[in-house]
Amino acid sequence: MKPFGTLVDAVTGRTVPNIGPEENRQAVERLLLGEKGYRREEIAVDHPIEVTVQGVPYRSHLHLLVRVEGRAALAVICVAGSVVSWERMAVAAARLAAETIVPLAVVSDGRTALVVDAATGGRIGEGLEAIPSRAQWQARFAAAPPARLDPGRREREALVFRSYDSDRVNVPPPTGKP
Description:
The protein is of the alpha+beta class. The protein has one domain: tt1808, chain A (Alpha-Beta Complex). The chain contains four helices and eight strands. It has a six-stranded mixed beta sheet with strand order 3-4-5-6-7-8, with helices on both faces. The two termini are about 20 Å apart.
């Protein structure tokens, strides 16, 4: 395996391998912590996602899960290529990552982003400016009742997530991934 450099994770302070979209994830983390006003303790790095597809367990992770006042707010997928190509995976991840649908799915390469309403699949905005700040999220989404995924859709969303997730390249397999 080719040796890779390392980076210090902006949220956790841990040293991480600079593989795949890691530099892009660090740019998104710095944006969330700085300009967008989220707190370190609100951002889970490599949040586990466990699903079952056709009776077979599949374990992976979501790059970032942001919670505001204990409620899941943003599900973030960081990529090294086209953000549009990963939009559907981000929506599936937002539908699977918490007990209720995470309101916003974000896919970013660190320079731009797509923000999608995870319940409807409708695009909310493009560009880093479309990612709401903590205050904007609270004003717009905090009072809305959490949406729940129809149980019949869970396995279909799990299939979408697994299909995209298994195609990620130049990344180490997540802990516990078969």
